[in-house]
């Protein structure tokens, strides 16, 4: 009998737990530890953020589902990692702390045979002064409650300008020099623009995109060359076309370092320190590791064996010049090299380097997007980790046959560009591979042009809406859920 | 600035055209994302 501990119940953790439970007999224990009591389908938070969906439409409680399916669940947060146990506990364990009810603040040791660290990122609002959501007129759509808060503020602003001649400024983008998830901010800016049109106040609002990207359409993936309407187009040109068509301005290469009430301070790549005023802002924070500490059986700190901000996995972390980076540096099995029974799929693994070209301002401030690992790659990497653990348990020896490098994996970004069954729109972009392979696809910007394409239109909205229902169906583990791919 | 022509926008929002595009997009996306993945070394 094996015990598999899954830390986190987001897209990666929940996917791993679901596949493990389906494929392993009940003699094996699967336990999920997460501080969150609800599963949330994060990609639909965009629609919560404009008031087109209620939070309850993007979430469901985890405990009843896990109880029904035979998956253990503790509402707790990880405190420290003990991969060798300690003087009183021979098994490896995680020290966890309850976050709700009677268990609030109580710590306990949770042992495991296999550990899946799917703790995702810490939303590091604290890395940018004044960025805390709901303060200084700045909001977030990173969680359903943040998005709900943003929606209320947006509609309050819309009501104000409807009743007056007041002109307002809306600022949406990234709130840190190394933030990622530009895609979410991109979706949100287009949805906000569409809502302003719907309420007849578009002419009263100046909308500006502010981002740490060097060029529009970078998305933390160094941009892409894609097939669009029969010809090859750079993502930069496509996004520029969309923004110009919708009257959206942009500020690029910006490291936001401070937010005050309706005022954002940023540094650009020229080393200039500038400010921008706004009446409503939505800025994505930096993502960071959770700052977990790890100890060996003697109590000695071994954090550097497990973490490099995020968790160390089978990547090549050797420091080398940008020109020498390659897809081979990226992990394939997400297994920690020091402790072979520990894995980190999804956002929890430490990327070997950025995908976008690293850039510094004249003052030495790093301004470039961190690599995205959200959504689909999270699900795929979680499933392959689960499959390797399942094989290892069934064979009685380590089996790492399932591999999935971001350098050999496709991704689809179906970005909502406005909500509505007949008036909605979506920007659909697929890319293959996620990490550009400049040797294999040297003529097409590191991507397979047959698998990297873009499309704009109502169908994209319908695709995103159908994915919302399909993935919630899958997450709820309803009949034949596993037939829906990650 | 009008960067997307009126006729293009009509095509983008035409439910009849988009109905077929919906299936086309789904199949194309599915082929890419569910078409497998692997290592690089």
List keywords for this structure.
heterodimer, A: 486 residues, alpha/beta, FAD/NAD(P)-binding domain, 8-stranded mixed sheet, B: 41 residues, mainly alpha, 66% helix
List the helices and strands and how they pair.
The complex is a heterodimer of chains A (486) and B (41).
Chain A: E1 3-7, H1 11-23, E2 29-34, E3 38-40, H2 45-48, E4 59-61, H3 62-69, E5 72-82, E6 93-98, E7 107-111, E8 114-117, E9 122-124, E10 138-139, H4 144-162, E11 168-174, H5 182-198, E12 205-210, E13 225-228, E14 231-234, H6 235-245, E15 248-251, E16 254-260, E17 263-268, E18 273-277, E19 280-284, E20 286-288, E21 293-294, H7 303-306, E22 307-308, E23 310-311, E24 342-343, H8 376-395, E25 411-418, E26 425-431, E27 454-457, H9 458-475
Helix pairs in contact in A: 1-8
Chain B: H1 6-13, H2 15-33
Query: Helicity level of chain A, as a percent range?
Result: 10-25%
The CATH architecture of the domain at 3-123 and 289-404 in chain A is: 3-Layer(bba) Sandwich
Kindly report the average pLDDT value of chain A. 96
Global mean pLDDT of chain B:
91
Described by the principal axes of the CA atoms, the overall outline of chain A is globular
H/E element order of chain B? HH
Helix content of chain B: 55-70%
Q: What overall form of chain B do the CA principal axes indicate?
A: elongated
Number of helices of chain A: 9
Computed structural class of chain B: mainly alpha
Number of helices of chain B: 2
Percent of residues in beta strands of chain A: 25-35%
Sheet bearing the most strands of chain A, described? 8 strands, mixed
Please indicate the percent range of residues of chain B in DSSP E strands (runs of 2 or more): under 5%
Q: From the helix content, strand content and strand pairing of chain A, which structural class follows?
A: alpha/beta
What quaternary form is this?
heterodimer
